[in-house]
Amino acid sequence: MSCRPHSTRTSSQPLAFHGQNWCARLLGAALLSGALAACDTDTLTQLDLDGVVQHDVADTADDLNTDLGPDSGPDVPPAVQCNVPVDCAYGGPCIDMACILGQCVATAHAIGTACSDSDACTTGDACTAQGLCKGTAAKCSDGNACTDDYCDQISGCKVTFNTSTCKAGDACATWQCASGVCKIATQTTCDDGNPCTADVCGVSGCTYAALQLTACDDGDACTVNGICKFGLCKSTPLSCDDGDTCTVDSCDSKLGCVHALTTGACSDGDNCTKADSCVAGVCVGTPKDCDDGDPCTADSCAPATAVCLHSAIAAGTSCDPGTPCVEAASCGAQGCVGTKKVCDDGNPCTVDGCSAPGGCYAQPVSDGTACGTGQSCTGGTCQ
After folding, report:
1. First and final CA of the chain: distance in angstroms?
2. How far apart, in whole angstroms, are the C-alpha atoms of residue 85 and residue 12?
3. pLDDT of 81-125, one tens digit each?
């Protein structure tokens, strides 16, 4: 049998068939799908790989089939493979499948045709000479040292945060990734504890420059007026003397001055006191007694000499005569002088008088003492 389709094709077109020669149709389909149809292979017609049918010529090296001798019997049509295109197996994104006269025929897309390999981890997908859809691996690096980059075939590039060390070479801090950001984890402390140095962290690490004639605090509560000299803090000792003889004064380097209370004899610096002693941290003495008993003098003590002084009070100044039997007393040349107090209760049966310290008194006379016409005293009463 001679299979004689009489057309040519490009690499992106299926064979065109004319007439009802099923063998030629199948040979054309075989060229595209990669599988020869079940036709007799006689010496009359051969099919080259380029899709051009050679008529009644000898075989060449690029023939798809080789002659196997003369026909051995009648041609037999192949079994039906499809009724509609969906009956044919999917050939991939670079192969179009068609159902032609019951046979599945594949047509390859042109090389370089855009396609999708269904892999989100490739880009620039295109058809190859082998009819495959291939792309270039996607670059998922975001340039961030604090993320781990990877590709998921379905959703594409993804990142996850890491906790790796970042920003190396910083002498003043260590850096570590946190939530996708490079952050300071620890800060270098350059404090040498010396108030007279300028402590700085630079490219090479900590440096300590000596300060000169700058006020400073040496951290000692028992010193004052600190000043830096050649990188050292020089201070003056603190005086803790509170001038109180009833405290023991000392200094604590952390607390400062401490004044502990004491007891015992002391001196309050006043000559007009005696028997001075410490009471609750205070020196207390008993005042010297300079009272001369004269209500018309102002009595005092001279602190410098401890001598008692008695100054006269102005004449006419009220005074206390020291007895209840004198009233309206005032100071004069004779001292505190007043009027004798009159004590009369108006009772003929009492004897009235005045005496210290009680003042006026009334003493009953003897019973039977006449006290009126035909009357006499009885129990201090006139009856």
Report:
1. 194
2. 18
3. 899 888 898 889 999 999 999 999 999 999 999 999 999 999 999
